[in-house]
Design a protein that fits this description.
This protein is an alpha/beta fold. It has eleven helices and 16 strands.
Length: 415
């Protein structure tokens, strides 16, 4: 059986440009266009089932227009009698425990199964059409199984005062332990000798998050451990949540579908695709990455434009940026105004344009950033460059620092 796996559509408005033909947000149409292309292409390639690993919409309260666009993207699956399984992602989830999640708006769509709790599904295939049922029904005719872990409603967990009082790291570890207990329970229920794929919307500790998924980098997001996932015994682990497509382990395959469309400028340079899985009856599943027609992002700086406006236009035309989303980063002392840069980029056919002006103070702070490994005298000089009011005291402060360093060295020597 062939199964198409996708995730992180993030259908919603982004940036400011409006599509002149419809009046809708241009990036909103990009997201829905690539989503529909993914469904259509998967069906053309013989997929008998489409699975979505979460984050259909960018927000948990989609507008009627955003709902219509998603239903339109899923319509080819309904027309081809190809079932669709969709997991709830964090962007689909409500902000409070009492709200319904966004995917409730798709629950009554023919051929769409919304998964908002951990479960095990049986997949049937008659050679022409796929069917999906919860485990316990039609067990004798299944060709594979899907273990599903949607994004958990951690608000329910935080309702416990003792949990709320934990440090973030301890709370995230508690969430990991509880979710691993759930996954071990699903693994124990899988049928022997039947291929079983785990679908989840979750972070994994060894994954490259890319610049868009920054919350986990800051310690605000819980993650699962890749080696614990490997040990569960599933034939493959197919994930949503991080937008950068990647394989974390090969046997069993653990990895991310990635978003089929670049969501932010932070994903510049990332290739976008969906996964096409072949699930044989008595062998390891295998997958192929199918590239999508995603919109390219590009960052340009002042040196990319040359020294004269006419020269800038020539440089830009040679760069073949037509239909790309362009982010221009300029110093405060840029020779041309932001409006002039926009005019030149529009003439070259850029799809969307943003211009960021880096103020002199911000630039100085970036150039003088320090880390834990920076030698103390160098770190002090860097700090003084950002605090010019203390610059006259540089020699005095450096002398004082040298005395402190000498004293620390003597203490360490006696220890």
């Amino acid at each position: 059986m062939r199964i198409a796996a996708t995730a992180d559509w993030h259908v919603g408005p982004s940036r400011q440009r409006l599509d002149p033909a419809t009046g809708l947000n241009a990036r909103l149409l990009d997201f829905s266009r690539v989503a529909k292309w993914t469904v259509e292409d998967a069906i053309e390639r013989g997929a008998g089932l489409i699975v979505h690993c979460g984050d259909v919409w960018h927000g948990c309260r989609p507008t009627p227009t955003e709902v219509r666009l998603v239903k339109d993207a899923l319509a080819p699956a309904h027309e081809a009698a190809v079932p669709v399984v969709i997991l709830v992602g964090n962007h689909d989830s409500p902000r409070t425990p009492t709200e319904q999640h966004a995917l409730d708006l798709l629950r009554d769509e023919d051929g769409v199964l919304v998964v908002d709790r951990p479960c095990l599904l049986n997949v049937m295939w008659n050679g022409e059409r796929g069917y999906v049922y919860e485990a316990g029904r039609y067990d004798m005719h299944r060709v594979c199984q899907l273990a599903c872990l949607p994004w958990p409603n951690t608000n329910l967990l935080l309702a416990d005062a003792d949990v709320r009082g934990l440090e973030p790291a301890a709370r995230n570890l508690l969430i990991r332990e509880k979710l691993m207990d759930v996954l071990r329970g699903l693994a124990a229920q899988r049928a022997e000798g039947v291929p079983c794929l785990l679908l989840a919307h979750a972070g994994v500790d060894t994954a490259e998050m890319g610049k868009t998924n920054t919350l986990a980098m800051l310690g605000g997001d819980w993650t699962l451990n890749v080696y614990e996932l490997q040990a569960l015994g599933f034939d493959a682990v197919v994930l949503g949540h991080y937008h950068k497509p990647q394989m974390l382990t090969e046997e069993p395959w653990v990895g991310y579908c990635g978003s089929p469309e670049a969501v932010t400028a932070g994903e510049e340079g990332e290739r976008k695709h969906y996964l096409l899985w072949d699930v044989p009856a008595n062998d390891w599943p295998s997958c192929e990455a199918v590239e999508t027609p995603y919109r390219r992002f590009r960052t340009m700086v002042q040196s990319d434009f040359g020294t004269e406006l006419d020269g800038a236009l020539r440089v830009i035309e040679e760069a073949t940026i037509r239909d790309q989303v362009i982010r221009v980063v300029l110093p405060e002392t840029a020779k041309f105004s932001a409006a002039e840069y926009r005019r030149v980029l529009e003439a070259a056919g850029a799809h969307d344009i943003s211009v960021e002006i880096i103020r002199a103070e911000t630039q100085r702070r970036r150039e003088t950033s320090v880390s834990a490994s920076t030698p103390p005298p160098e770190a002090l000089d860097g700090w003084l460059q950002t605090k010019t009011e203390y610059a006259p005291m540089r020699d005095e402060l450096q002398t004082e620092l040298a005395g402190v360093e000498q004293q620390r060295g003597g203490i360490n020597a006696t220890e």
